[in-house]
Specification:
The protein is α/β, with parallel strands linked by helices. Helix content is about 50%, strand content about 15%. It has helices spanning about 15-25, 30-40, 45-55, 60-70, 90-100, 115-125, 165-180, 180-190, 200-215; strands at about 1-5, 30, 80-85, 110-115, 125-130, 135-140, 155-160, 190-195. Strands 2-3-1-4-8 form a 5-stranded parallel β-sheet, sandwiched between helices. A 3-stranded antiparallel β-sheet has the order 6-5-7. A hairpin with a 5-residue loop joins strand 5 and strand 6. Helix 2 (about 30-40) packs across helix 3 and helix 4 packs parallel to helix 5. The protein binds adenosine-5'-diphosphate (2 copies) and zinc ion (ZN). Zinc ion binds near residues 130, 132, 150 and 152.
Length: about 220
């Protein structure tokens, strides 16, 4: 299935994406992860993306669209894929439609995870992830067994630099201004399914599975 996972920063997209892609055996395509990887490797893309990410702003559309177009052409996407954090603007959504049309394929479902702003802030401020396997934890809501150490691989848990200070609030404002209009875009196409993200991770996943199973 060709799935888009939407929701404000901190909604639980990355957490649910891990579960969905394991269950349905499809690739997890996260533009945030792709940019962070490029930043840590110090590539040209990373240098460009870093300027925007540090401020909580969006990386320019032309950069982001180029990356997704390339990625969707990989053969592992033939059986379906999960887009996490893309599209984030109307221009990106329209470009995605064009890329899909060229590939003679369609987005089949858009899952939107919604959570109140206060909780999103708490979640972002407590988020840590494994440097090695990228598993996501929360110091408050989903702590690892030993502080700072990944349960799955023993790797070091680190906080994202954009999960601190004013950047957290900027990202929420950017979401409201630039990304939330996409909900109406997909609603009009009849693809949008809203999921309450303010419940246990396993319950959120159950609700998502119900939607996906109803479409299979
Ligand atoms: P979150 O999981 O908190 O929503 P992401 O990991 O998806 O955050 O994104 C982190 C940052 O990467 C964003 O704040 C933005 O700077 C950049 N980014 C990720 N996806 C996109 C996109 N589709 N368009 C533009 N910028 C993006
Ligand atoms: P996103 O990719 O949408 O920014 P993440 O999946 O990274 O969101 O989750 C943000 C933070 O909230 C992480 O620290 C994660 O452990 C935590 N989290 C995710 N889902 C839940 C949930 N259902 N209840 C409580 N905390 C959650
Ligand atoms: Zn790990």
């Amino acid at each position: 299935m060709n799935i888009i996972l939407m929701g404000p920063p901190g909604a639980g997209k990355g957490t649910q994406a891990e579960l969905i892609t394991a269950e349905y055996n499809i690739p997890h395509i996260s533009t945030g992860d792709i940019f962070r990887e490029a930043v840590s490797k110090g590539t040209e893309l990373g240098k460009e993306a870093k300027k925007y990410m540090n401020e909580g702003k969006l990386v320019p559309d032309e950069v982001t669209i180029g990356i997704i177009e390339e990625r969707l052409n990989y053969s592992d996407c033939l059986q379906g894929f999960l887009l996490d954090g893309f599209p984030r603007t109307t221009v990106q959504a329209e470009a995605l439609d064009e890329v899909m049309a060229k590939l003679d394929r369609k987005i089949e479902v858009v899952i939107n995870i919604f959570v109140d702003r206060d909780i999103l802030i708490e979640r972002m401020e407590g988020r840590v992830s494994c440097k090695n396997c990228k598993s996501i934890y929360n110091t408050k809501f989903n702590p690892p067994s030993s502080p700072g150490i990944c349960d799955k691989c023993g790797g070091e848990l680190v906080q994202r630099s954009d999960d601190r200070g004013e950047t957290v609030r900027t990202r929420l404002d950017v979401y409201i201004e630039q990304t939330s209009p996409l909900l109406a875009y997909y609603e009009k196409k009849g693809l949008l399914h809203n999921i309450n993200g303010d419940q246990d991770t396993s319950l959120v996943f159950e609700d998502i599975k119900k939607v996906l199973e109803s479409l299979r």
